[in-house]
Amino acid sequence: MIAEGAGPLVVLLPSRGRDSEDYDEVAAGIAKAGYRVLRPQPRGTCRSTGPMKGLTLHDFARDVAAVIAHAGGGPAVVAGHAFGNWVARMTAADHPQLVRGVIILAAAARTYPRTLSEAVTKCADLTLADSERLEYLRSAFFAPGHDASVWLKGWYPEVNESQFAAGRATRQEEWWGREEPLCSTSRRRSIPSSRARR
Q1: Residues 6 or more apart whose Cβ sits within 8 Å of residue 135
Q2: How many CB atoms lie within 10 A of CB 145?
Q3: Cα(87)–Cα(80) distance, rounded to whole angstroms?
């Protein structure tokens, strides 16, 4: 886990098959604004270990909950990018006492075109040519005018496979929605945005 700053807790969760080091620039800005930023490193990335087979989103949510509990119990704002938004929502559903609010970044709609799912998968396919992967990265994650080549590296194929399987093994209804908002308008605090990335 990477931790920086001091203040209310913010947890940043990366995209499928990637590590939370992707958030270096964003985390620095949030910490500078007066927050304690925690970046759990998913199982299989860097020195993070744990079972990789037979998992569901509940398992990844437990990992995040353990990080929040270790940091004092929160509650935390949990932000998840792409696949990370599923884990953020699952953490809120399974451990509501630890989650103050959820921020979803580059999150798909409840249903979305198969081509988008294929593009996300092909971004991480290291057997494809970089030029082909760049096209998928641009269409799935990067706004026009931004350099998608920064994501040609930093993929963990075993992590990608494990997380993909966990997502498929968990019913969408378990993490998608709640009867009430996770936090009321009066309790929300703004968090600075970084460069535009879809």
Answers
A1: none
A2: 7
A3: 7
Q: Are the beta carbons of 102 and 88 closer than 8 angstroms? A: yes
CA–CA–CA angle 21, 68, 107 (5° rounding): 55
Quick one: which of 162, 150, 157 has its CA closest to 128? 157
- Bridge partners, residue 101, by sequence: 77
Amino acid residing at 158: E
Distance (Å, rounded) from C-alpha 102 to C-alpha 93?
10
Dihedral of alpha carbons 121, 126, 132, 133, sign: positive
Question: Whole-model pTM?
Answer: 0.84
Taking the CB of residue 59, how many other CB atoms lie within 10 A of it? Answer: 18
Q: Tell me the per-residue pLDDT of 49-88, one tens digit each, with 9 for 90 and over.
A: 677 798 999 999 999 999 999 999 889 999 999 999 999 9
| Three state DSSP letters for 175-192 | CCCCCCCCCCHHHCCCCC
